[in-house]
Amino acid sequence: MNIIFLGPPGAGKGTQAQRICAALNIPQISTGDILRRAIKEQTPTGLKAKSYIDAGKLVADEVIIDIVKDRLAQEDCQNGYILDGFPRTVPQAEALTHIANIDSVIELAVDDQHLINRLSGRRVCLKCGATYHISLLDGKTTCAACGEELIQRDDDKAETVLNRLTVYHDQTAPLVSFYEEKGLLHRIDGAQGMDVIFQSIMETLGVK
Ligand code: ADP
Ligand code: ADP
Ligand code: ZN
Q1: Alpha carbon nearest to ligand 1 atom 15, residue
Q2: Nearest atom of ligand 2 to the alpha carbon of 133
């Protein structure tokens, strides 16, 4: 099954994608994680992308489309995947129609005030992509999955978060109607608890 997770920054895409991918044994393809790794390794793509990410702006469509095209061609994607954070613009969604057949789009809907709280407390593992919230970490500073030190993303600082929400509403939210018109969109209330959301995604996908 080829699945897209759509929603604003902080909606819970990464959290749920990780759980659903584990349950379905398919890879999670997070363009944000790929870019952050490229920055850490100082690859040409990483060097190009950094100033955009730090400012809360989107990286150029051509750069992202190439990354996704290469990733989806790999062997582990042949039995399905979850795209987490892609597409984020109409041109990206249009490019994707030439690369992949999407079976389902899960939209996690959460209002801005909730998102600001979530993003300001988010802590991430750059090594394995796991995501945590400070309110649930109990003072721990390392990743429960792999032991790496957790960090706060630079773009989760307050000034940048507001930019990212504006960018979402302007450039990514139009994808909701794009996929609604194709009959692929399933909206889930992302303000619910993590377990409830997980169950409703599994039901929506027809797996239990
Ligand atoms: P979040 O999980 O908070 O929604 P991501 O980790 O998906 O954020 O993305 C972080 C940043 O990486 C974005 O603000 C943007 O600069 C860049 N990025 C990630 N995916 C894309 C994409 N599909 N198109 C353009 N830029 C992207
Ligand atoms: P996204 O990938 O959409 O940007 P994340 O999965 O990284 O979002 O989640 C953003 C923050 O919100 C993280 O700190 C995460 O632990 C927390 N979070 C995710 N889902 C929920 C939920 N259902 N309820 C409360 N907090 C959540
Ligand atoms: Zn980790």
Answers
A1: 58
A2: 14
